[in-house]
Amino acid sequence: MKINDFCNMQELSSITRNWSKLTGLKVDITDTEGNVIATSMDSSQDAADPGFSENEDENSESAFTRHASVELKIRDEVIGTVTVTNPDESDADYSVVMPLIDSLLNGYISNQYYVYANDKVLSRLSDGIKETNGLVKKVISSTNTLKGIQKRQKIVAINASIEAARVGQAGRGFAVVAEEVKKLSDASSEANDKIERVVNQIRDVVSTLSLDKDDNA
Predict the structure, then answer these.
(1) How many secondary structure helices (H) and strands (E) does the chain include?
(2) Residues of CATH 3.30.450 domain(s) within the chain?
(3) Which regions of the chain carry the CATH code 1.10.287.950?
(4) Sheet harboring 77-85: ordered strands across?
């Protein structure tokens, strides 16, 4: 995960610059690959810091090499580092400064991430609702088709019963078949009604979740 993927980098840079103005300390934010992605001072100011070296010992007495760092994390995953440097010869109390910058930047980045993550979840939810609505429409279309078949089955059963009665004893076997067709039609009708009730319940639930009421079936 990269900070640039979800964070407003312009706002992040603005925060570091404002922090630098208030404290007189330089702030650099690097990603997990060591690339500086936000800094409180532009390149001309960096050039005015002769003797600064991140590779020198943190405990050095040189004002240009003294710095401290904290990690930027999202759900315990390190996604970057904040390095605070004292650019002049005055001492900086890092025991006070670092917890503050840690809380400020980690809080901001966490907020940015959860806004980004929530947007993705809502987008997937919206897509899922639209897909569900499409499936509901298909089921409704299928149940309407079944209703048409059931009506024809009943008509066939009625006509068969009439013909069986007309021919008397000779049509007894035909009458039995007609009765079974009628029972099958009734059973299909009952099953179809149950499916329709379930589909309507699903549609009602989807309707309550939908972000766009115009998308409902």
Answers:
(1) 5, 4
(2) 3-92
(3) 125-215
(4) 36-39, 26-31, 77-85, 67-74
In three-state secondary structure terms, 35 is coil
Cβ pair 140, 217 in contact under 8 A = yes
**pLDDT tens-place string over residues 55-85:** 344 444 433 347 789 999 998 999 999 999 8
Q: State the architecture of 3-92 in CATH terms.
A: 2-Layer Sandwich (3.30)
- This prediction has a pTM of 0.56
Q: Are 67 and 85 in contact (CB under 8 A)?
A: yes
Is 45 within 8 Å of 62 (Cβ atoms)?
A: no
Under 8 Å between Cβ of 29 and 37? yes
Q: Which two tokens stand for residue 70?
A: 């904290």
- φ/ψ of residue 51, rounded to 5: 90, -10
Task: Give the right CATH number for 125-215 from 1.25.40.10, 3.40.630.10, 1.10.287.950, 3.40.50.300.
Answer: 1.10.287.950
pLDDT at 44 over 60: no
